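LOG
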Amino acid sequence: MAITVLVVDDNPDVFFSIKNGFEVIDKDYHIIGVESGEKCLEILQNQQIPDVILLDIMMPKMSGWEIYQKVKERNEWKDIPIIFLSARSDRVATKAGSFLGDDYIEKPFDIDSMKLRIEKVLKKNK
């Protein structure tokens, strides 16, 4: 059974790194990438509901915190696990990301560790 991961990051290199990494380690992952919060919400509104969202915090127009809030306030989306993915390593971001989200992964990331953390989140949320 394929696991769909929605990567929301304004840096296309992050999406390509995750997509290419998962193509090498596990073909059962379907990676979708969007570069903005608006595109994320558009995908969700079109009923393309992922198993998990990897969400960057620092993005133009709409931050990851704002996207998180918009996702969680909708009944049909509120149960989608969200893992924050950010270059921010300050205490405020890591504490808030770990508290609000299902996990917090710092960039740069290790693809094998990311896969294990995604699986842990999915198992916990079943």
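LOG (cont.) second protein
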Amino acid sequence: MDKEDILSESIPLLEIKNLQVERGGAVLLQLPFLEIRSGEIFSLIGSNGAGKTTLLQTLACLMKPSAGEIFFRGQRIESHSSIFEYRRRLAIVFHEPLLFDTTVFENVASGLKMRGIERSEIRKIATEQMNHFGINHLHDRSARTLSGGEAQRTSLARAFAIRPEILFLDEPLANLDPPSRESLIEDLERILRETRTTTIFATHDKVEALRLSDRIAVMHGGKTIQIGTPEEVMNHPVNEFVAFFVGIETVLAGKVIHKENGTLVVSVGGGRIEAVGEAELGEDVTLCIRPENVTLSNPSYQEMTSARNVIPGKISRVISLGFYQKIELDCGFPLVAYVTHTSMENLSLREGKEVKASFKATAVHVLRRGKQIIMAKEE
């Protein structure tokens, strides 16, 4: 690799600085810094109104920012000509498929025709993409007759056909039924990994983001609250908002009453919890415990366990969540566990029953109150 290639690899594919979007006097987006690396799948997650679509459309130059700069391969996008050239290098798929009133083949081939590609090459590329997304048998079908899943597959095939340097996905799976959604996300995951297409993916579904992403940005109020790998965001949230959003059901306020060799003993409600983390003796902290890290057993069962926390509790509520059951416990403080239907039957779990809840000290994420990161920053 020569010096020019090394320099190119070190430059982010897309970078923003001090970006702000205002509409009607309201600030919709405010990001001091963000970079997207070549070949990565970068997801934007957050609830409705968090700013995901606004950021995606601004990065795609479909919405003009009020302030700030956008750089593509180190070059600032500012003039009309640079915006036009940049747009030719990207593709966008929205949550509602936007198809021409013609056949599937003509839709997939449309971007190639606009670029003046030879007819034989157009047919080859379009057919390849239709095969990738399992719609080649529909090539002569009118787009008006397609199901939601078929229409979105056509939109994606059209986007990949032009071999974009950046692919923007705005909740493309949001309106699909569960079987169509699962089938499409499998194909999309495979194709993104095979092509290494740089992708910015806006979604409110954390499961989709976990499955597809190299990095995730959690958004709230037009700001990025945390940016990191799926493991970092899911298991090491920077504040309570992120913890709740990524599915950490137990979030507890407490005070450090003992500290030894990196292990903390935290007074919580009517009990104590051991955790591994950074905090000072006497400091107020917040503890985050994922429900899948909590194991339940009968009080009389004397099992061998490496868990530092073995706490008696009573089941206050049982909620069915399809493939598993959500168990809400009163342990002197609220605690949530997930169990399978088999475990539910084997342990005869029901509301009012007393159980033991076990979890490791390393499964407890410690947040230092007052020292939480409010705005995500990157090195």
